[in-house]
Specification:
The complex is a heterodimer of chains A (461) and B (187). Helix content of chain A is 20%, strand content 35%. Chain A is built from 9 helices and 27 strands. The N and C termini of chain A lie far apart (57 Å). Chain A folds into 3 domains: 22-208, Rossmann fold (3-Layer(aba) Sandwich), CATH 3.40.50; 215-329, TATA-Binding Protein (2-Layer Sandwich); 339-456, Immunoglobulin-like (Sandwich), CATH 2.60.40. Chain B has a single domain, classed as 3-Layer(aba) Sandwich (Glutaredoxin). Chain B has 5 helices and 9 strands. Classes of the chains: A alpha+beta (461), B alpha+beta (187). Chain A binds chain B through residues 350-356, 358-360, 384-385, 387, 389, 391-394, 396-403, 417-419, 421, 423, 425-426, 458-461, and chain B through 1-3, 5, 63-68, 70-71, 73-75, 77-78, 105-106, 109-110, 112-114, 138-140, 142, 144-148, 151-157, 176-177.
């Protein structure tokens, strides 16, 4: 019996291989090394062709002295699918009209434009971020609001996705931003494989936002060095500093002849000068005080300062803050079990006129497990009710609406961007383009997954 | 409804091109269209025959609709963009089939939000039903377990009325703006 039967050849010619996607990375004197090399490694590992572009092909010096020869001068660079704008010493670059024009031109053809760290300042200078939401490195978040007043600047995300334009927080955030772009271009699996190859503990979300961590409350009170004032003749040394967005604890040791009460007194005076209100202490000379204060956003916090002896000539001092009303502040970073089995992409909520207290949310949900499951509900603090709906054209040309109890999610992607969608009913506030809504999806088996969903205007062709 | 999105671009172009002539489906003789009078979104009386000389794009819906109706209004907006300078020779007319929820203020906001050159109309249920019947559209109110209380199922065709007020045909709400604009230009 012949092994090959005639006519069994495929009828259609084999598909032409897809051309490899290209990434252009802008570099310049004083560029931050990790801002561009982190994403370079990610895109390269994900199978994209990566090259660097500068004002000329002359060697540039990065901000820690590493010398790099760019692949191309601006106008000689090939077209790219992804444009990456890193940060570092950006002032000269953001003021260079040739660079600004180049970004404006090249962004037109690019599928994605990604800024890392204060590369957001260069990108903002092009005007391309106007009306969009963006982030940057923690210490430059507030200044960016003044620098680019038309940009909505946020501090609580590691990267911010506007569709084409993505901005990341500082430094290592570029690695997450780049992996996220890989997931947008090629799917979650490719992003996961890339992270595995890089031996990188990729969380697959935008939650770790350096700028939003609660240590900024202590920086506000103690100054940027978070130094513990030490009594004369003693020396203080920081032992640990750790926490979450809603909780922070710092520990110091004071070495010298001072008593615990002396060590605490100086700290308490500094806190009181920083507009903290002392709520009480057990008695005169006590070595524990309770505090409360309001942060820049007007949220209430509680605090504790305490000191205790630890052997001869050593006093341990600790300072804790916790946001009042935060859910399990200390453990805010504990992952929800099961939520990682789902990926949500291309989510958006439709902007509606002010008096319409309803709107629709659209998204693609990917069930990453091998077994089918279902979406059984959703909630959002902005709406009284969130329902699952299907809009369906019947055979008589009538558009019919149905409320569903569940939406089946077989393994792989389920499209909730049209026929299937979520309805947000009785909105408590008007949603406008640029707003971000936290929508918590509830899956079969008690799994819930919060997703940040941007509000957008509907685009119709 | 949005299934067309998943078609390859070349196929959409092909469909639009070949169906250009056939797109304006003829409407049945039982639904001849014709003149009508309702209340517009500023509370003024709107009579179709007062707008002779303009091509009218007429459609039915309701403002609690978050899928078909915003798509239709967005598409109407694109049609006017394509018509460019000729936009003032056409008018879009949105008849609400939900007089209970769609007050003139709600309608005014809704059309201003989604589309230009569009007037939204309401009236008593009887007045609205008469226009629906005239044009062969259909709708039904369906009680629902949804927090919305009820849904309105409705046809989503866009009716093309010539400068003399005669019904010339209808488009589907999924037809592309180019196709609808071409239909308007031919009249």
């Amino acid at each position: 019996m012949p092994l090959i039967v005639k006519g069994s050849q495929p009828a259609a010619p084999a598909q032409a291989p897809q051309p490899r996607k290209k990434v252009a990375i802008l570099i310049f004197d004083n560029v931050q090394i990790i801002d561009y090399t982190g994403p370079y490694e990610v895109f390269g590992a994900a199978g994209l062709d990566v090259f660097t572009v500068a004002t000329s092909t002359a060697t540039i010096t990065t901000n820690m002295g590493m010398k790099v020869t760019p692949h191309y001068a601006l106008n000689e660079a090939p077209a790219a699918d992804v444009l990456l704008i890193p940060g570092g010493g950006v002032v000269a670059t953001q003021q260079d009209p040739n660079v600004i024009k180049w970004i404006q031109e090249r962004s037109k053809q690019a599928e994605y434009v990604l800024s890392v760290c204060n590369g957001a300042y260069i990108l903002a200078k092009t005007g391309l971020l106007d009306g969009l939401t963006a982030t940057t490195t923690a210490p430059l978040i507030d200044p960016l609001k003044n620098f680019a007043p038309k940009v909505k600047v946020v501090r609580d995300q590691r990267y911010v996705d506007n569709g084409k334009f993505i901005t990341t927080a500082g430094l290592s955030s570029g690695i997450d931003g780049a992996i996220y772009v890989v997931s947008k271009m090629f799917g979650v699996a490719r992003a996961q494989l890339t992270a595995l190859r890089l031996e990188y503990d990729w969380k697959g979300d935008s939650k770790y936002a350096r700028a939003n961590l609660a240590d900024r409350q202590l920086v506000n009170a103690l100054g940027p060095g978070v130094l513990l004032p030490a009594p004369q003749g003693s020396k203080s040394e920081l032992l640990s500093t750790e926490g979450t967005a809603d909780y922070w604890e710092m520990k110091w040791q004071v070495v010298g002849d001072s008593s615990p009460a002396d060590a605490l007194k100086l700290l308490n005076e500094t806190l009181a000068a920083g507009k903290w209100i002392e709520e009480g202490r057990p008695g005169p000379g006590a070595i524990r005080s309770a505090w409360k204060f309001k942060d820049q956003e007007g949220r209430d916090w509680s605090g504790t300062s305490a000191a205790q002896p630890a052997g001869s000539k050593i006093v341990l001092v600790n300072l804790k803050v916790e946001r009042i009303g935060a859910v399990s502040a200390k453990h805010a970073s504990v992952p929800e079990s099961g939520a990682e089995k789902f990926a949500v992409r291309d989510a958006w909520i439709q902007e509606m006129p002010p008096s319409r207290r309803i709107t629709a949310a659209h998204m693609i949900i990917e069930n990453l497990a091998v077994t089918p499951t279902a979406l059984i509900g959703a909630r959002a603090t902005i709406a009284r009710v969130v329902e699952l709906h299907r809009a369906e054209m019947d055979d008589k040309g009538m558009m019919r609406m149905h409320k569903l109890d569940r939406i089946e999610l077989p393994p792989g992607k389920t499209d909730l961007t049209g026929e299937l969608h979520l309805m947000l009913i009785d909105l408590k506030a008007q949603l406008k383009e640029g707003d971000q809504v936290t929508l918590t999806l509830e899956f079969q088996g008690g799994i819930s997954k919060p997703v940040m969903v941007p509000v957008k205007k509907r685009q119709t062709e | 409804m949005l299934r067309i999105r998943s078609l390859p671009v070349w196929l959409i172009a092909f469909v639009s091109f070949t169906s250009l002539a056939a797109a304006q489906e003829k409407v049945s003789d039982q639904a001849p269209g014709g003149d009508f009078s309702l209340t517009d979104h500023d509370g003024k009386r709107f009579k179709l025959s007062d707008h002779r000389g303009k091509v009218i794009l007429l459609f039915f819906g309701y403002t609690s609709c978050t899928e078909a109706c915003p798509i239709i209004l967005g598409r109407i907006n694109s049609v006017f963009k394509q018509l460019g300078g000729g936009a003032d020779k056409a008018l879009a007319v949105f008849v609400s089939v939900d007089p209970q929820r769609d007050t003139t203020q709600v309608l005014r906001e809704y059309v201003h939000h989604f589309s230009a050159n569009t007037v939204a109309l309401t009236g008593t249920k009887e007045e609205i039903d008469e226009v629906v019947k005239q044009y062969g559209a259909r709708y039904e109110i369906e009680k629902s377990s949804s927090a919305l209380g009820y849904h309105i199922n409705h046809t989503t065709d866009i009716y093309l009325i010539d400068r003399q007020g005669a019904l010339q045909g209808r488009f589907k709400h999924t037809d592309r703006a180019e196709l609808i604009a071409a239909g308007v230009k031919r009249l």
